[in-house]
Amino acid sequence: MPIRTLVALAIAGLLAGCATHFVNVPLPDGEGNPERRSIDVSDKSRPVIVVALSGGGSRAAALGWNVLKELRGVKYSKPGAERRLIDDVAVVSSVSGGSTIAAFYGLNGPDALDQFEPFLVKDNVKSLLAAAANPFAWIDHAIHGGSRTDFVVDMMNAELFHGRTMAELNQPGKPFVILNGTDMAGGEVFSFRPGMFDDICAKLDTLPVAIAAATSADVPIIFAPEAYRNYSETHCKGRPIPTWITNKLTQKTGPYINLPEYRRARYANDLRWGPDPFRKIQYLYLVDGGLADNLGIHSVLDTIESPHDPARMLMHINNGNINNLVVVVVNARSDPVESEYTSPDRPGIFSMIDSVTGVPINSTTASVNAQLDVLLAQLKAAAQIDRPDAPFKNLRVYGILVDFDQLRPSIPEQKKLRDRAKAIPTSWTISAEDRAVLKEAAEVLMHQHPCFQRLLLDLNVKAPYIDPVFAKGGCPQP
């Protein structure tokens, strides 16, 4: 969302003093948050697809939407039936703008994807500014302890979610949709999953989806952080700490064998008010998930490699229940404006705010993306070990990154498409022309990716854009 057009929101927020309203409620005594979803591994020949959707306002939402529609449009044959790739999507992890389409897809399913388009067509920035200019809205928020972030919640409820709750995302037969925010104080990824809400002794089912999605897209400075209370000390005192947390924190080798896993255990222990906490966390102030990971890859890594993840994907891989793992990462990032390189004038305050928020996000995103590349390479290497008892010996891994930089500058039309796509602003408004650019970009990027082509080859899908030599060379499989 352009900082200049929304600075009125920030100024109004600074002028509106009010008590903090916490959006979550405690778990009833003795209860936990049930995980009702699971990965269907009844047919090993079907791919298991994991999708990560990046931040970037409506630009990210539109690109992610078009990639999901591409998956919906590909059909392959199964004995006695025809199946779509989107029917094999098992996990969707998202941040910021990507969380709008992720949550909408999780609630409504693949056949309702076309109903997302009105959200992209509407001038949502105009609606937000109109709400911010309404003094009665500010009075209402002040009375109820709200903040300027409530305007985004109201917009998402009106346009997309209509008061529906997280319980509707967490149902049997639905994919694991994981919306991600950032713990502003600790810089940790905070995921809207049953296990993480168990950590803070709070009920996830009753939380409105609009609040979770708005938290994931809560741009710092422009909007206020969303406030969550940790009820562990007051409502869940004395509950047992999960064994995996205790083991990680008490084993001498814990910080050396896997430091990220050790830190995750430490953070969970802190949230639970466990023994010897690193920090005593009473309140959480959550902001845009892009600050910690603008691709939603942290949750993808947990899902694939953690033996404690409720999706149990690592167990399924180890047991040979998954033979085709597909990971689609959709990156809707834009580049810095060229004027910063060509102007002799010192950058102003707005450019500096853009820089101090954008540069660290891009750096962190590159780091976690590299971690995913390493994991997928390790899985591929394990699958190529020539032993009857080799782990993952039947596993094929298809890593598909959708990134504007993959548009080929040697082809004038694609170079132009790349530059136009990257010039689309990060906003909650997107023009018809820009929507058309992103539709074309999603189609071109998916069709010319060697691992997407290889996946279709291996599923015996006929498509005119498949080059078998390119697909096999660019995405080798055991």
What's the overall average pLDDT, rounded? 87
Percent of residues in helices comes to: 40-55%
Low-confidence stretches: 1-17
Q: How big is the Rg?
A: 22 Å
Number of helices: 21
Number of strands: 10
Strand fraction: 5-15%
Sheet having the most strands: 8 strands, mixed
Overall spatial form = globular
Which structural class matches the secondary elements? alpha/beta
Q: Distance between the terminal alpha carbons, to the nearest Å?
A: 45 Å
Q: What's the assembly state of these chains?
A: single chain
Chain-wise SSE layout:
Layout: H1 3-15, E1 48-53, H2 57-73, E2 75-78, E3 81-84, E4 89-95, H3 97-108, H4 117-121, H5 124-132, H6 135-143, H7 149-161, E5 176-183, E6 189-191, H8 194-199, H9 209-216, E7 226-229, H10 232-235, H11 243-250, H12 254-257, H13 259-271, E8 283-288, H14 297-305, H15 313-318, E9 324-331, H16 339-342, H17 349-383, E10 396-403, H18 412-422, H19 432-447, H20 450-458, H21 468-474
Parallel strand pairs: 1-4, 1-9, 4-5, 9-10
Antiparallel strand pairs: 2-3, 5-6, 5-8, 7-8
